[in-house]
Amino acid sequence: MSANEKSSPQPSNPAPRRRSFVPRRLPGASLAITVMLAPAVPACAQWIPCLPEQQDLVKIPELISKDGRLRGTLLLSDQQERLTFRQPPAKKPGEPGAKIQCAPQYVRVLRGVDAVPPPPAKAGDYPDPLPGPTLRVRVGDLIELTFLNQINPADFGNSIDRGDAATGTGCDESSNGYPGKIPPPGNVPPGGDTFPNCFHGSSTANVHFHGTHTNPSSTGDNVFIEVRPSLRVDGKPIVTEASVRESFDEFFCRCEAKLKFNPLRQWPYTWSDLPPSYTAMQKELLKKYDETPGIKKLWPVDEAQLEEGAWPQYYLGAYPYCFRLPEYTATTWPPPPAPAVAHAAAHAGGAGTAELAQLKEAEPARPLIMGQSPGTHWYHAHKHGSTAIDVSNGMTGALIIEGKYDDELNKFYGDGWTRRQPVMVINQIGVTPNLERGSKGRTDAGENFSINGRLNPLLRLKPGEVQMWRIVNTSFRSGAYFHPPQHGLHWMRLAVDGVQLKDVNYKHSLDQPFLLAAGNRADLLVKAPTKPGAACKTPESCTYPIMVTVDVDPGDLAGPNKLDPVTLLSVNVAGTAPEMEFISPAPDFPPFLADISRAEVKGTKKIVFASNGATHTIDGRKFSGEVGEVVLLNTVEEWKVVNETYGPLISHPFHIHINPFQVVEVFSPNDLLLDESGKPVIDPATKQPVPKYTFAKAAFSGQCHLDPTDDPDNWKPCDPPHKQKDLIWWDVFPIPSGAQLPDPSDPEKDPKKQRKINVPGYFKMRSRFVDYSGYYVIHCHILAHEDRGMMTIVEVAPLRSPYSHH
Questions:
Q1: What's the mean per-residue pLDDT of the chain?
Q2: Which CATH fold topology does 596-797 show?
């Protein structure tokens, strides 16, 4: 990844200039509402003492469901926190000479109102970073969340979404030249970011519930809404939890009734399904906002969408999320036909006339084909244009969805065991995308990894103890490649991306390295050594490092761009306890996660991701708000997801919302030839690793020949075909980077001058686009790429067109 695509800290204390206006009087409002539009004036860096490493792992506060629903409040605000910065910025993680310094910075923060336990007390003048609250629910539950945006724009110059400004570029603008010279129409050079595919709108937010199989529309996992900060009176937000409580309680109760009997129902359908008190308040607030001089008005946009029967886009201060996590109750797959009304009524406990009418209204016309996978998922801000800065600020959190998976683990390890296990939220905490920095302030690999807001935290185990680490990589850029455990530690992976592994895959994971790309999750069983190592300071206690490499491509692990491993966290083993064992077999595998067979596939697509300089596209286009892919509901498709990025090497992490997928083929043309021990084969003539793929005649055993005259679509892996059984489910998977292989027809023999042929990397995946129709997105999970164009919309259409030529 090129330096200008990665975030870098540049400490500053914003001292914003203010522009104010006096709107018409709001109920209870007495003074002017201040809206920030002018740029901040940065001050000099203020270095402060850092928190020492190897602090005990922070327990993240939790919001926990009760009686089948999670009703709570997510509060988005901002504060100054003590952030860590690698100095000098150009140093790579683990590189000799790099050091960590700290400075106070304003960041956007997510907190759970009444989450338990409370956040840790600050150690010094400023609090340290902390992820959003862990949301802990169970399959079948309703999620009912009040989302409040109380960011104070006065703390961030230009944080009102400039994309809606009547003048200017619509993008963030910096003294370092970002977004670059605006190009003429039809001639967009690299580096010339234009709205909406640029960094912008960092005070606007929403929430994406990553890994949920649910309603993608209205108040579900809907990433197309935009919630602006509450307007302020006397410096305080007008929209508060108290001001929306009555409206939202009314809505949540109605939502429960509407979704109670039918997990496939995608209510609410229209804005009129929301309480009139809330919609009237939003209309009034948006009109007040629209009186701000020099901005594009928001209410006319919502009004036009309402006239078209669409769900409106803009909100101020508060938004209600209500959706269900569907429980698959059938014992086989495919599922049997949907139950009759009478059968459903019988299971409703003798429903009365009113309830029978509601049951009939909610009666499913089709069965649930998939269910929500229990496991470790997560959530994060997903406003296009500001996902990178918001996620790097820390607007992320774990979403633990419990189910039969947890029940079986607790049966083996003891009642309540899974709830006592550590939750680890990895992030690269930062304040400004690299392109908005001067060249001397840019980093190459992103900020250092933190876990729950701390660098290299300490986790405590007893000899022979087994813990389950729920690990979420919420980093805005980098993957974490976990090297095999050392010093007598052992591990096994139970789940990937919130979906448990079959027993055969679980057993093959013993002490294996693995990559946790940006957006990936893992449930990792870790067993401490029964006796501390001989090198420990005392015979009773020892501290071991867990080593990772910062990774956006396998090239970061070997070759000239190899990065040094760094310590992600430390494990202290001390005390005495009975020895524990890894669970065997793995928990039962849900029937709805049956492998997708070739016979199920009803359609295919080819989707191309490409970075060319600073331009990031899907199928040659930047994000436009238009639909890029259309799929018919309840069908299976096989997609060839291609990477035409040829330098620098980037394995774009492909992510799709709502439906997980299985990978059936991988072609990685930059792979090296490995010997039987898994080490790269070295060419004795050049002393360099031997590439696995070549256009020349294969010179080494196991090397693969590609035909340079063939159609590039026919280039594929030379390994035995990918097994079509016991496949892993993903919702993020890195697309292998493209390679530039020497052209054997070029008479030039100097490898540096020889003509190259571009060979794209790809993987093929199958997905069941089932249960929920609507619009959602696919994108690169290097979020600076997503913000700048590498995203498109998937439409899952509920009906086939009635038109026919026959």
A1: 88
A2: Immunoglobulin-like (2.60.40)
